[in-house]
Specification:
- With about 200 residues, the chain is mainly α.
- Helix content is about 85%, strand content about 0%.
- Helix 3 (about 40-75) crosses helix 5 (about 100-125).
Length: about 200
């Protein structure tokens, strides 16, 4: 089960990286980067910095869900597992300065949803992440339903964060772009898993 945990965690890290790169690649290249030799190094460093920044927000709730899913799959879960999840989500939101009832409720919903998904993957047969997905969901349509439900929950969280941050246009736009890119990246992985 530990190997499955590692496959899932690496897949989530890869998705975070692809989301960030998908956003950065769509931004127009500054003319300065094209004119001065060696400026690609600054672009490379900026991309790595952006990946770390995005991962710092994207991965902790997923890692929490994955840790809890492993606990449930191995030990059947303990009493209070979900209360512990709720407390950790609240603590994380508070450290990020994002806590209010709406952000908390929407992120808790995402984490609980991901726990069920990860338990399903951990209990599935397979040697790779794609195998786990294919065996856990059997049909492409089932996995697409999961992705649509996740996208809906993430949209609710994005809206709650946007409201918490007083609807600052720049932040709202960044959150919307990140949400859209996350949805696009996840849908791109369907083909290699289910061999369209």
């Amino acid at each position: 089960m530990r190997e499955k945990y590692i496959h899932i965690l690496k897949a989530e890290e890869s998705i975070a990286r692809r989301i960030t790169l998908g956003i950065l690649v769509k931004r127009p290249v500054k003319p300065l980067f094209q004119l001065i030799p060696g400026m690609f190094i600054f672009d490379f460093l900026k991309r790595n910095s952006e990946i770390r920044r995005y991962s710092q927000y994207y991965l902790p709730p997923r890692k929490l869900a994955l840790d809890m899913a492993l606990d449930i799959a191995v030990e059947g879960g303990k009493d209070g597992t979900f209360q512990e999840v709720d407390r950790k989500v609240r603590d994380w939101l508070e450290t990020q300065g994002l806590f209010n009832s709406d952000t908390n409720q929407s992120l808790v919903a995402i984490v609980h949803f991901l726990i069920a998904h990860y338990v399903k993957l951990i209990e599935a047969n397979g040697a790779t992440y794609n195998d786990l997905i294919k065996n856990a969901y059997s049909l492409k349509g089932n996995y697409e339903i999961y992705l649509d439900q996740l996208a809906s929950l993430e949209k609710d969280f994005t809206q709650a964060v946007s409201k918490k941050l007083d609807d600052i246009d720049d932040i709202r736009q960044k959150l919307f772009i990140e949400h859209k890119e996350a949805d696009n990246q996840r849908k791109r992985e369907i083909g290699p898993i289910f061999f369209d």
